[in-house]
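FW: tagging you since you asked about this chain on Friday. Here's the raw sequence from the shared folder, copied in full. Didn't touch anything.
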Amino acid sequence: MAFERKPIIDRFKDKVAIVTGGSSGIGRAIVEELCKEGASVAFTGISDAGLTTEREMKEQGWDVFFLQGDMILEQFCKDIVAKTIQRWGKVNYLVNNAFSFIAKGIDATTEDWQRSYFVGPVGYARMVQNCIEPMQKEGGGAIVNMSSISAHIAQVNRWTYNASKGAVNQMTKCQALDLAKLNIRVNTLDPGWVWTREVDKAARLDGGGRKKWEPFWGAYHMLRRTAEPVECAGPTLFLLSDDASFITGSEIACDGGYCAMGPEGIGETTVNAGSI
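HL: got it, structure written out here
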């Protein structure tokens, strides 16, 4: 499904944002939409694929800067902020999006847990800590921590991922409380199933690709489809913007009705009514 949003031109003019995990998927969509609305954006990625993303964005005339590294490293988290300030002199916004996709349960090793937590909630915490001082110098800022429906539900063999996402949601509330006095807002976005590179990879491994699995996975949602990455970018930009000036410590479910629907699913009646 193709989906395009209409940018709000110059909403983020002269603003600087950091987006971790911005080379592909939801992160890339957020970087692109921020650029369309006038922001300068530093984004990170663990592989050199981000160099291609950076080149493609610069060809659009966007002011972007790619930093390659692993969010598990404390020094890299410091370098991201330092190099962003070196380039543009400030930081106004942070989107914590880079996360470990390790999803294990009974078979989870200590190393699995360590990577899940230190790339995920610990990495998020480090980035927030590093952004506090530069945001203060700008009179405040806004932060979005990307979470998931997995923070709220049980899923088979996913102890590591779901526990890490759950930690993000609780940590966000604490961060929002501590930083409110500094005029720094912190919120969480909880996406449902989004057709990203990782989801596409899973669909191909199981056979059939998107044509087969979109109707199946889409049926978990009231809207009977999975989301496009850009559909998560719009709510993220809203939370960063002044339109969300009185929103902090909150979660926005960008899940097509997944969590609200409950165990009965969409049901035949709903399916038929939806086709009228």
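FW: The chain has eleven helices and seven strands.
HL: agreed, and The CA atoms of residues 111 and 117 lie 10 Å apart.
FW: great, closing this out.
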